[in-house]
């Protein structure tokens, strides 16, 4: 069964507590929190104060995705805000191994995200140090984008790398995930499905989460 991580970026921000309660009552295990700085990606989302309040409202694992430059400067603050895991981008970290160790030393799960143009083999030397890898299936920065088809091949390649080494590393996918394409991603090797508009814009978000959760290899 897949892990479902509703992306709060697509929630109604006037009703964040209600949205968190809905996720709490659903079959989702994680809550995905996208932090954007307007520098690494062309958008600004939310930051530490919002996550502090969300942490109080949710019982779910808080998966914090830092789409920001110099994430090492803020990792400790996000830990205090309530992050259970921190995802940093391969593309902005000049000292990636050190950044991963910093996250783990603070007691959080460490993950690395890669953009659509970044090949899987770039993770070769740090894969064993990670809890999960986030494959961006759209270009980061905005919700509601269409899934990039070649992302399936990237998931398959990463699945083979993980299985060949017998590593306990999860594959997370984010961007354009729908009820219609979720099963193909899970078949390719994905473990965690991040879904924003698919969940929060649906007529019955809990039922949508249930359908995503039902995907299995």
From TrEMBL:
Query: Which Gene3D superfamilies does this chain map to?
Result: Aldolase class I
For the ligand (substrate), the binding residues are 7, 65, 141-144, 174-176
Q: What is its EC number?
A: 5.1.3.1
Q: In which pathway does it act?
A: Carbohydrate degradation
The enzyme class is isomerase
**Signal sequence bounds:** none
Q: Which GO terms describe its biological process?
A: pentose catabolic process; pentose-phosphate shunt
Q: Where does a divalent metal cation bind?
A: 32, 34, 65, 174
Which intervals of the chain form a coiled coil?
A: none
Q: Name the InterPro entries on file.
A: Aldolase_TIM, Ribul_P_3_epim, Ribul_P_3_epim-like, RibuloseP-bd_barrel
Kindly list the GO molecular function terms attached to this UniProt entry: D-ribulose-phosphate 3-epimerase activity; metal ion binding
Which residues are catalytic?
34 (proton acceptor), 174 (proton donor)
Q: Which reaction does it catalyse?
A: D-ribulose 5-phosphate = D-xylulose 5-phosphate
Taxonomically, the superkingdom here is Bacteria
Its annotated function is as follows: Catalyzes the reversible epimerization of D-ribulose 5-phosphate to D-xylulose 5-phosphate.
Similarity annotation = Belongs to the ribulose-phosphate 3-epimerase family.
Identify this protein by name: Ribulose-phosphate 3-epimerase
Per the UniProt record, the source organism is: Parafilimonas terrae
């Amino acid at each position: 069964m897949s892990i479902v991580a509703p992306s709060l970026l697509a929630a109604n921000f006037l009703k964040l507590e209600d949205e968190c309660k809905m996720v709490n009552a659903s079959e989702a295990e994680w809550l995905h929190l996208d932090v954007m700085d307007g520098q690494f990606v062309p958008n600004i989302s939310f930051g530490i104060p919002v996550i502090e309040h969300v942490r109080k409202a949710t019982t779910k694992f808080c998966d914090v995705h830092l789409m920001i430059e110099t994430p090492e400067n803020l990792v400790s603050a996000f830990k205090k805000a309530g992050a259970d895991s921190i995802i940093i981008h391969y593309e902005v970290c000049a000292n990636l191994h050190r950044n991963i160790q910093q996250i783990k030393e603070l007691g959080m799960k460490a993950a690395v995200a890669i953009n659509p143009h970044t090949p899987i083999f770039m993770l070769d030397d740090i894969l064993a140090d990670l809890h999960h890898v986030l494959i961006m299936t759209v270009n980061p920065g905005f919700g509601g984008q269409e899934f990039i088809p070649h992302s399936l091949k990237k998931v398959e390649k990463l699945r083979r790398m993980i299985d060949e080494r017998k590593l306990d590393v999860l594959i997370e996918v984010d961007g354009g995930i729908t009820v219609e394409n979720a099963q193909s991603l899970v078949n390719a090797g994905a473990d965690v499905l991040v879904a924003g508009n698919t969940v929060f814009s649906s007529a019955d978000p809990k039922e949508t989460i249930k359908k995503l959760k039902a995907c299995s290899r």
